[in-house]
Amino acid sequence: MNILETDIPGVRIIEPRKFGDHRGFFMESYSAPRLAEAGIDDHFVQDNHSLSAAAGTLRGLHCQTPPHAQAKLVRVTRGRVLDVAVDARRGSPTFGRHVAVELDPESARQLYVPVGFLHGFVTLEPDTEFLYKVSDCYAPECDTGVRFDDPDLGIDWGLNGREPVLSEKDSQLVSWADFDSPFTWEG
Ligand SMILES: Cc1cn([C@H]2C[C@H](O)[C@@H](COP(=O)(O)OP(=O)(O)O[C@H]3O[C@@H](C)C(=O)[C@@H](O)[C@H]3O)O2)c(=O)[nH]c1=O
Asked: Which of 24, 57, 61, 69 gives a 20 to 30 Å CA spacing to 167?
């Protein structure tokens, strides 16, 4: 399992070792001790699984606020996404900046998104299945987010002018300027 840094310290790319043979492949898709060696020691309490039928489906940008903030460990088992994590920790040197990584089953890459980040993804293929672990349970009263296309964030979702498929909730999220982030950078 390789654990790679990204442009934002703390956001990590995980590359599980894949063993291929005539039957297919085997991999350890999650290993608590190996992640802990790299400083990722969240206690994941819930697994989520979503299917997005159409390419160009965009879910995000989301987070849960304290006391139910979530770290996430995300991956794709069918299709392909561009996955995005935005630093929402006040005082962080990378506040407002983002990491964008393509995830697909072939590479088996995962993204670790720490607490304090907004998270979202756009599907690049139809019938994309997205699986992730979260470190706190779903708490709808803490569920919030920011518009994916906020100009201050400047995220290139690769939509090239096309309108994404969005939930009603995501079409009504606030701007980055109006997002009163509850997260602070702890250095
Ligand atoms: C996230 C979530 C939703 N739900 C329910 C609420 C709702 O009726 C239905 C669909 O919820 P949403 O529209 O919020 O699902 P979705 O837009 O897929 O939300 C997810 O987006 C990605 C980008 C994330 O980072 C996740 O943390 C989560 O916010 O599922 C749960 O029961 N548990 C959960 O943990």
From this structure: 69
Amino acid (one-letter) located at 48 = N
pLDDT digits over 125-151, tens only? 999 999 999 999 999 999 999 999 999
Q: What is the pTM of this model?
A: 0.97
Predicted ipTM? 0.98
**Separation of 19 CA from ligand 1 center, angstroms?**
32
pLDDT in tens, 63-122: 999 999 999 999 999 999 999 999 999 999 999 999 999 999 999 999 999 999 999 999
Report the nearest atom of ligand 1 relative to the CA of 140. 6
Q: Are 148 and 171 in contact (CB under 8 A)?
A: no
112 vs 70, 104, 186, CA distance in Å?
11, 15, 18
What is the token pair recorded at 54? Answer: 């159409």
Counting from 1 in the atom list of ligand 1, the atom nearest the Cα of 137 is 35
* 65 and 142 Cβ atoms separated by less than 8 Å: yes
Domain CATH number, residue 20: 2.60.120.10
d(CA 176, CA 167) in angstroms, rounded, equals: 18
Q: Where are the alpha helices (DSSP H) in the chain?
A: 32-37, 168-171
What's the domain range around 58?
2-184
